Every structure is written in structure tokens, then in C-alpha cells.
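can u do me a favor
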């Protein structure tokens, strides 16, 4: 790759948008300065409407309205993993995949999201910025809880109430495929040594 490509803002913008993860550039107060295409599509963000708004306000964090000053000023905000990750990054440290739980509000409906937050600091024109990577792991956390499974055939009941085999469920929800083998107990039970 030619070095000159890396100096072109258009090229770097295309790389930023091509990354298939939610990327957000923020300042030290978690004000959104830029989002990539994936963030825009995944979170439904329009950069023209979220520019310079704080992350909690944009995502509709239930605590963003707890204080008149908004996101980052409520008592709960001192424990916010996103805010603390940005603070740590501004101090020059990288943050890798810190677990976070956020409650969001859409009208009267509350939604709980489980996230992994990474934060990397960078300096541009004498100003500190943070690149946030946000991964939604809510489905994984849900799977970590109880899954309704048939005690006889081991099919799993999905969110729509239909029963599906375990391999299909994991392939559909987590893009996980199973390989097959035999444990020692089944090997002895089904293929005993003569």
C-alpha cells in the first residue's frame, strides 16, 4: 500500500466506515464527534443529529435525564463503564473489552443492553480524542441465563415459542457450528469393547 494513501482523509474515512464494528469518536465528555457506517446503521444514528451530544443522551440511557445537566452529571454516571473507559483513555491508557450494562428507554419501554467497551486514545491537532468500540453481547448474556430445553430430546424453545434443535439454535443466534464426537461414557455404552 502506498504511504500517500494513509495521508488522505478520504481513504481513512473509507477504512473507518468499512470496519464491521460499532466505532464512535468522542471527546473527554463523551460527546460524539463521529460515528462509522456500522454504528450509524446498527444504532440508527444520524451523525447530523447526534454531533456534539453526549453518548447517554444519544442512546437514551435511562440515567441521562437524572440530572438537569444531562448525561455524565447524575450520581449513577460515576459508575458508567463507557464514561470511565473514556476517562481512562484520555489519561493515555487503552481499555479492552470492559463489560457494561446499560438500561435504555424508548418511550415507555426499557431495554437492557450488555456491552463490551474498548477505548483507545489518540491525539489530533493538540486535542485528545477517544475511539470507542462497542460490542453488543446481550444475546450471549441471555444465553448465559436459563434456556428452555426439552428434558427428553434436548430441543430449545426460541423466543417465538417454537422448538428447534440445539445445533440450529446456536447456529442461528450465535453463528456457532457444532462438530460431533463421542464422550467416554457414550462410547462405552453404545460401542462396548468385546
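np, heres the sequence
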Amino acid at each position: 500500500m502506498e504511504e500517500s494513501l494513509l495521508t488522505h482523509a478520504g481513504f481513512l474515512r473509507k477504512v473507518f466506515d468499512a470496519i464491521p464494528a460499532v466505532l464512535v469518536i468522542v471527546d473527554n465528555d463523551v460527546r460524539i464527534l463521529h460515528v462509522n457506517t456500522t454504528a450509524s446503521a446498527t444504532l440508527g444514528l444520524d451523525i447530523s443529529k447526534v454531533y456534539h451530544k453526549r453518548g447517554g443522551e444519544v442512546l437514551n440511557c435511562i440515567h441521562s435525564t437524572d440530572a438537569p445537566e444531562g448525561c455524565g452529571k447524575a450520581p449513577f454516571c460515576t459508575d458508567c463503564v463507557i464514561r470511565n473507559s473514556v476517562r481512562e483513555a484520555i489519561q493515555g491508557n487503552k481499555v479492552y473489552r470492559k463489560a457494561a450494562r446499560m438500561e435504555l428507554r424508548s418511550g415507555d419501554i426499557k431495554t437492557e443492553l450488555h456491552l463490551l467497551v474498548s477505548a483507545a486514545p489518540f491525539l489530533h491537532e493538540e486535542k485528545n480524542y477517544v475511539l470507542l468500540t462497542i460490542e453488543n453481547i446481550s444475546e450471549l448474556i441471555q444465553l448465559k441465563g436459563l434456556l428452555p430445553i426439552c428434558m427428553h430430546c434436548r430441543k430449545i424453545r426460541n423466543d417465538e415459542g417454537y422448538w428447534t434443535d440445539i445445533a440450529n439454535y446456536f447456529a442461528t443466534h450465535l453463528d456457532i457450528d457444532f462438530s460431533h464426537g463421542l464422550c467416554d461414557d457414550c462410547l462405552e455404552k453404545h460401542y462396548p469393547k468385546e
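Strands lie at 22-26, 32-35, 95-106, 109-124, 127-136, 156-157, 163-164. hope that helps!!
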